Amino acid sequence: MRQVDHFLAGGVTAAPVRKHQIWNPSTGEIQAEVGLGDAALLEKAVATAKEVQPAWAATNPQKRARVMFRYKELIEANMQDLAELLSSEHGKVVDDAKGDVQRGLEVIEFACGIPQVLKGDYTQGAGPGIDVYSMRQPLGIGAGITPFNFPAMIPMWMFGMAIATGNAFILKPSERDPSVPVRLAELFVEAGAPEGLLQVVHGDKEMVDAILDHEDIAAVSFVGSSDIAHYVYKRGVAAGKRIQAMGGAKNHGIVMPDADLDQVVNDLSGAAFGSAGERCMALPVVVPVGEDTAERLREKLIPAIHALNVGVSNDPDAHYGPVVTPEHKARVEGWIDTAEKEGGEIVVDGRGFALQGHEKGFFVGPTLIDHVKPHMESYKEEIFGPVLQIVRAADFEEAVRLPSDHQYGNGVAIFTRNGHAAREFANRVNVGMVGINVPIPVPVAYHSFGGWKRSGFGDTDQYGMEGLKFWTKAKKVTQRWPDGSADDGNSFIIPTMG
Ligand code: NAD
Q1: What pLDDT is stored for residue 63 in this prediction?
Q2: pTM, rounded to two decimals
Q3: Would you state the torsion angle of the CA atoms of residues 138, 37, 91, 72, taken in this order, to the nearest 10 degrees?
Q4: Ligand 1, pocket residues at CB < 6 Å
Q5: What's the pLDDT at 13?
Q6: Which atom of ligand 1 has the smallest separation from the CA of 176?
Q7: pLDDT below 50 — which residues of the chain?
């Protein structure tokens, strides 16, 4: 059986005590095993990181950027292999897996410009003979704990910024699809990065706790489900670390009566069912405004959903593949049961779906549930599967209120031809990322990504200038070079600039 190992400088000496099995979700077979690390293994990684980080921080930013440029080229050259490996462990179709790699790569491209964005501010003559300047310095060692659903993009969001700004980085990827993160770390060394600058340790809660408690790790970026994000945030902050912890989501798509419904149905098909709904920026809730809009939308959605092609992840004609594990398939189907018991109308039922020839795969058919109400548990919680819920809103005010009142506040979209309604919505809605006729509004790499409420704990977003801020600390220098001609004497008042 294929073994997935940690990626530490100098290799790994001890055999793992505990192992986790990695599925091929399309076939329902176990394809590999990953050893789960412990605090002793982390200690080894931290010792290496401490050794290599000072020299990296002292390497001028242009040279650091050159490594990023070479890394970008290597990832592009390896795109197909990375996407196929990712697809085989995650279950998303290969083209979508390429998108996963590509969106991470865009952060590496941003990191190629690190000399420009890392420049500080300078004020000459802030006072008599006094200049003030600021600089951003790396924190030392950073760590990232990532979810299964974007095994390439999310690690690159984190280490791209952390390393370009001069830190060493330890990545703890999801144990469910850990192979691509290891491959990304190997390619980084091939690109010329010093060994030990980017290390990968595998594990579960035991490793996460060891990371959160380790006194030499200055900052931790986490992405995953909300309860664990909140736990990581609290424990990390208590240990004196800088923490950002992104959580779950339940994104709403508001459909105004004037929207182009054919376009909306196209957008919803991809945003609700792409990657089997296993995206934190998926659109699992659609909110048509007014009964007439709801009826017209439903009529168009039903045939579009029936036309979706569910297939194995390397089938080029499949729109989406299996979900990640058998437990997750059972969980998603359980939520459909709950929605039915709560009074939702199961319009298209994806339960019990079996793909011919791949009956053991973890497939869930596309599901549409109408007449979902805000008090229902299946509405309040994240389902994270190919399930679209319709919540009918009476008017625009209710459509603003629904996502605003929801416990999650990651993304939201509005579909309309009315600029005023869109502008008003974007201004008022209590959600972190807004799409206007854009179903999946993941900001580009030179902006930043982050949700609100239970979708994000901590003050800074991922990547872009927010990422740069998270992985560095600001130093402010006030300097005076007296020429020796003046005797200012002692002063016992707080210095002012006159
Ligand atoms: P998860 O919370 O199960 O796992 C995330 C990480 O936490 C993994 O590395 C895992 O090993 C670790 N972990 C698991 N159990 C733990 C525990 N008890 N204590 C400490 N660490 C633990 O999430 P997942 O299922 O891998 O990913 C899906 C979730 O991530 C969804 O909720 C999705 O919305 C969310 N997500 C959010 C964003 C965002 O940016 N807001 C992006 C992607 C995914």
Answers
A1: 98
A2: 0.97
A3: 30
A4: 145-150, 172, 174-175, 204-205, 208, 223-225, 228, 246-249, 280, 382, 384, 410, 451, 455
A5: 79
A6: 26
A7: none
Ligand 1 atom nearest to CA at 246 = 41
Look at ligand 1, atom 39, and give the residue with the nearest C-alpha: 246
- Non-local (6+) Cβ contacts of 289 within 8 A are 254, 255, 256, 257, 393, 394, 395, 396, 398, 399
pLDDT of residue 16: 83
Instruction: Find out whether 155 and 104 touch, Cβ atoms under 8 Å.
Output: yes
Which domains occur in the chain, in start order? 2-247+455-477 (3.40.605.10), 252-436 (3.40.309.10)
The per-residue pLDDT for range 351-392, each reduced to its tens digit, is: 999 999 999 999 999 999 999 999 999 999 999 999 999 999
Q: How far is CA 67 from CA 54, 70, 74, 79, 324, in A?
A: 17, 5, 10, 18, 34
Query: Of 232, 176, 178, 168, nearest to 199 (Cα)?
Result: 168
- Residue 146 CA to residue 420 CA, distance in Å, equals 38
The whole-number pLDDT of residue 270 equals 98
The helix (run of H) or strand (run of E) holding residue 347 is strand 345-348
Please give the positions annotated as active site: 280
Q: Which token pair is 397?
A: 């005010």
Residue 337: CB atoms within 10 Å = 12
The two structure tokens encoding residue 121 = 């501010």
Contacts of 80 (CB under 8 A, 6+ apart): 98
Q: Can you tell me whether residue 223 is helix, strand or coil?
A: strand
